[in-house]
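DM from R.C. (forwarded with permission)

"hey, sorry to bug you on a friday — could you get me a structure for this? deadline for the figure draft is monday and I only need the backbone to look sensible"
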Amino acid sequence: MANPLSMPTADFARRSSGEQAALYIRRLIFDGELQPGARVPQDEIAQALGISRIPIREALIALEREGWVTIVMHRGAFVTALDEQAVRDHYELYGLVYGFAVGRAVARSGPELTRPLKEIQQALSATDDPTEVWNLTIRFHAQVVDAARSPRIRVVLRSMSGLIPGNFFELVPGTVESEKRGAAAIVRAVAKGDGERAGAEYARMMRAQGDRVVQVLKGRGLLDPPLEMTGSPT
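My reply, with the result:
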């Protein structure tokens, strides 16, 4: 799901070296270039990105926290299959955080929040282009976060990395329509001043997106039991 504060974007060059490396490795795994059980070729990745191994190690630590790899002492890092429940939890947490944010936004910004969200939602409903949907979604969520006026919400969102390494709406079928329906429902609730309902609609939308991500990852074999780690102790 698109996270305006922590997400893969087309502007790859603006990322830190560690973030570039993490995104690159996620993409290798997502595209099947690195299968579950395979050793992550740190030297090759460093050479491909033109960076040292230090940011590669930083990336691997972050990816281990996310469940993409397992680091084995003196052996290296190995691709692990993602846990289905962890993926679902990831999107449930998005729903909780954004749901909390929209509740705060309604309480703190009042009726003035409706107009900008409605404008974005209407533009969203008028397009099926994944790139346009991506950009509009970023604007929609960012508008909610800005209106919430909470530095703590921003801190939490920055700590949440996107699981899909690229344009979410291009890579995960069915998510464009889910986003459109969810955004429309959120705007209706905001227009009524019902922050609780808006939060519930956020949770519903994120849960639906998580279900679709699970199906994509299953289809790519990324949620299967991991294979024996190549080169790891037996």
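R.C.: lifesaver. Residues 84-109 form the longest helix (26 residues).
me: no worries. The first strand starts at residue 69 and ends at 72.
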